[in-house]
TrEMBL record:
Key word Cell membrane present: yes
Protein name: VTT domain-containing protein
Cellular component per GO, a single term: plasma membrane
Segments traversing the membrane: 12-28, 67-89, 151-173, 179-202
Length: 219
């Protein structure tokens, strides 16, 4: 996978692939969109490191690619959130049945739903890192008929924070260790660790009360 992604890092196709994966991830939480973003950043940053991981003088030239990956992933995240939000707002028996068939999404709703409703905007951002947390937030906000002006700002903050973190993991892994499976694996583990931490923060005892709802926050 690393070799295939690496061959795409200097082409527009990598942005199309990431954008499509991130958009669809809100409907199919099992898609490895985060892993793809990390892998792309690792492959791009790794081209500026030698075999011992020392940065070359041209390392700064990778910055536009990193920025492009962040903006692509963040924009796709918001677009996917908005699509799920609008579908849930309008209501759909087919959508309800699809959610019911997804054990992962149903479990996430049961575990995160109450906490997100009480936690407000800040927990929406944290939940973006949790497995299926993005889906729960977007669908719950739409089903509750929250105003778009309440939902979209938090969606944008959450998407940008998640994209910047994912790309940073790939960048530093590739920058220090080169474009290797080791650097990718370490970065992906750090991404999963953030997800586990996000679940803990959302579910921890008293977490709902400790996070005060922000004005106009999406639940």
């Amino acid at each position: 996978m690393l070799e295939h992604v690496g061959s795409l890092t200097n082409t527009p196709w990598i942005y199309a692939l990431i954008g499509l994966s991130v958009v669809l991830d809100v409907f199919v939480p099992v898609l490895p969109s985060g892993v793809l973003v990390v892998t792309a950043a690792t492959a791009a940053a790794g081209t500026t490191a030698d075999v011992v991981g020392a940065a070359r003088a041209q390392a700064d030239s990778v910055f536009p690619e990193m920025l492009g990956l962040v903006l692509c992933a963040a924009t796709a995240s918001v677009l996917g959130d908005l699509a799920a939000f609008r579908l849930a707002w309008r209501g759909s028996d087919r959508l309800d049945r699809a959610i019911a068939r997804s054990r992962r999404l149903t479990a996430a709703q049961e575990k995160l739903g109450t906490a997100l409703v009480k936690g407000g905007g800040p927990l929406v951002v944290v939940a973006r890192f949790a497995p299926a947390g993005r889906s729960v937030v977007s669908l719950s906000a739409g089903a509750a008929h929250r105003r778009p002006t309440e939902f979209l700002p938090w969606s944008a903050v959450a998407g940008l924070a998640w994209a910047a973190y994912s790309v940073s993991l790939g960048y530093f892994g590739g920058h220090w260790l080169g474009a290797s499976w080791l650097s990718t694996g370490i970065s992906v583990l750090a991404l999963f660790a953030a997800g586990a931490g996000a679940v803990y923060v959302v579910k921890r005892p008293g977490g709902e009360e400790s996070a005060q709802p922000a004005p106009g926050s999406a639940s």
